[in-house]
Structure formats: C-alpha cells, structure tokens
C-alpha cells in the first residue's frame, strides 16, 4: 500500500511544555481513524499542527502526493451572512482543492434552501453544511476536530451518513471525538493519545474478533494511563 500519512519524531511544544513529544506513526490504508484521549491529551494540537495552524518544533510529516490535509475545526467556519447557494462558489475561491460541483450536489442532498442565509439554518443543518463542504474538498488526508460533539442523535446519524457517502475511497480520515458508543461501525482503527504520546493503536476488527468491545478497550487504556 502507498503511504498516505507519516509522522517522524513529530514534536509540538508551547513554551516549555511539550504538547506532542514525539509522535511516530504511519498510515498506509485509506481508513477512518478515531482519535481519542482525555481533554489536554493533544488531539486538537496534533490535528492543527498537521494542518499548518500550529508551528512544529521538530520532526517531519509526509502526505501522499504532497497534498494539503483538509481540516474541519470544532466550530462552524462558513460565514453566516452567505446565502447557502453561494457557499460552493465562495469556497472554490478560497480553496484550490474545492469541488464546486460536488459542493452543490451535497447541498442538494441535504435539501437545504439555497436562498436562506447560513445563519438562518438550524444548528444541526449548519453543522451538516460545514461538514459537507469540508468533504467537497479533494485531498488524501482529512482531519476532523470533534465534529459530533454538540449535535443531537438524529443530526449525528445524518453527519455519519455524509462521511460514509462522500469521503474519497482512497483517502485517510482522522476524527477526534469523545464519543465511542455507537461509532464502532464508522471506524476502521483507533488511536488513544495521552500526554502528547500515542498510548494505543488498535484495529476495530481485531477488537471485535477478540470479543472485547471498542469502548471497553479505549476506556481501559485511558483509565490505566
């Protein structure tokens, strides 16, 4: 398999405190990866550093085809004054990797009123719009920071469906989340961070075959850290 993402001695620090110290990992398969850990474990730091939003003190990151990772922050990023129908055209001007035709198709699938402003949407529909427009960008690596944290169960199911439907088959998607229960069918593997280090990396299929739930494996690792 071709390398999709590789980190070698990847170190991020803030002042004298090491937020990541160091991280070595390689992803070859186009999987969906759950990123878990206590608050302050380094999840958001890792995603932001990979996205170029935080400086890296040392080490290297390599992404397939030298593409840029696509980052979805934990708060909506689309301007609320924009009309929904104009969003794909605006994002196409900001991001060279944005597929405007795909963006319009996703808005159609979400049955959004293109004449409404983004700020007039319900919270759940705004979250889905932000997620959908992120998936309309084309990359080898996608990084999502807590996209499911503040949504109701129905909206969460719609967002999971969006991810499964529009994630490119040949791409890696890493999702930071505190949710475990109900997500076993989404993830192919999981990482647990603790104090900026990788505490555990497990395959979901291996966990299931060993008759141990994904939730119990992750909780056990976090409790015993």
Q: Treating each run of at least 4 consecutive H or I residues as one helix, how many helices?
A: 7
- Dominant shape: globular
Helical content band:
25-40%
Class of the largest domain, according to the CATH hierarchy? Alpha Beta
CATH superfamily of the largest domain: P-loop containing nucleotide triphosphate hydrolases
Going by helix content, strand content and strand pairing, the class is alpha/beta
Organism: Actinomyces gaoshouyii
GO molecular function: ATP binding; ATP hydrolysis activity
InterPro entries: AAA+_ATPase (IPR003593), ABC_transporter-like_ATP-bd (IPR003439), P-loop_NTPase (IPR027417)
Keywords: ATP-binding, Nucleotide-binding
Explain what the structure shows:
InterPro entries: AAA+_ATPase, ABC_transporter-like_ATP-bd, P-loop_NTPase. This protein has 225 residues and is an alpha/beta fold. The protein has 2 domains: 110 residues, Rossmann fold (3-Layer(aba) Sandwich); 63 residues. The protein is built from 7 helices and 9 strands. A hairpin with a 2-residue loop joins strand 1 and strand 2.
